[in-house]
Design goal:
- By secondary structure, the chain is mainly beta.
- It is built from four helices and 17 strands.
- The strands form three sheets. An eight-stranded antiparallel barrel has the order 1-2-3-4-5-6-7-8.
- The termini are far apart.
- About 20% of the residues are buried.
- The N terminus is likely disordered.
Length: about 260
């Protein structure tokens, strides 16, 4: 009986060891360093013949000059990005790299043998885009026999907004944009009724947090004047996307501020 117990114990121990990796998250499993070494260099899309990515160390650089480089690991048969996104590798040789994108489509890369590739690839650091319309605008408006002068200034900043999207090959990428600060001033004759800057964070009560994180305060426009005061509309959009929030910014004749969402 004692020998039987020992045999059963050893069998259970071996079974436990064999299943251990199945219970460990992909991000915590051991990396396949040989596969990572094989991935180093320039890769072109086998279908379009266009440059796709540069793999350098533990980083993937994309041909799109606006996409941020991405840290990666090779775990098992998957390419795993820092975000946690994983792509199943179908084939990896010295000259071929095939994988399935987020839609399950097979993407085929082949190694570039262009000796001039080093001189062509010049954007290790992504180009950061601004997202603005008119920089300055102002006008005179009348109501109740009084004249009001309003002034809007759109000031680009160096505050970065990260937009999560997908490349043409269906791989998760991050694009970088600069946010803006809006300024509104309102005068009644020579009397200043209101003057203040507006930042994206001030709209957190009117725009969902996950949307606001990727959105840029893109524009501020005068809308109308009525008994309540002067109405301005702030536009918060995810860059290069149809999704936007329009938030009304109302400045009363007493210089008081109020906001409300009027459109999504």
């Amino acid at each position: 009986m004692k020998q039987l117990s020992i045999i059963i114990y050893l069998a259970l121990a071996l079974c436990s060891c064999g299943n251990r990796s199945a219970n460990v998250p992909v991000a915590e499993q051991d990396e396949d360093r040989d596969a990572k070494t094989m991935l180093q260099g320039f890769w072109v899309d086998d279908e379009t013949e266009e440059m796709a990515v540069l793999v350098k160390g533990d980083t993937i650089f994309y041909s799109d000059s606006t996409s941020m480089p991405a840290y990666f690991r090779v775990v098992g048969d998957s390419l795993v990005l820092a975000s946690g996104a994983a792509y199943n590798i179908d084939k990896l040789t010295e000259n071929l790299f095939w994988f399935h994108n987020q839609n399950g489509d097979l993407v085929k890369y082949r190694r570039s043998n262009n000796p001039e590739e080093d001189s062509i690839w010049v954007h290790d650091t992504p180009r950061i885009m601004t997202y603005t319309h008119q920089v300055k605008t102002d006008s005179m408006v009348s109501y109740g026999g009084e004249r009001y002068h309003w002034y809007i200034a759109i000031n680009p900043t160096k505050y970065k907004v990260i937009k999560h999207s997908y490349s043409d090959d269906g791989v998760e990428v991050d694009n970088v944009y600069y946010d803006n600060i809006m300024h509104i001033s309102v005068y009644k004759g020579a009397q200043k009724l209101y003057s203040s800057d507006f930042r994206k964070s001030q709209y957190s009560k009117f725009v969902p947090a996950d949307f606001l994180e990727q959105a840029v305060l893109g524009n501020m426009e005068y809308s109308s004047i009525d008994a309540a005061g002067l109405h301005f509309n702030a536009t918060l959009c995810i860059p290069d996307d149809a999704s936007c929030y329009l938030v009304e910014t109302l400045i009363s004749f007493k210089g008081e501020l109020s906001m409300k969402t009027i459109e999504y």
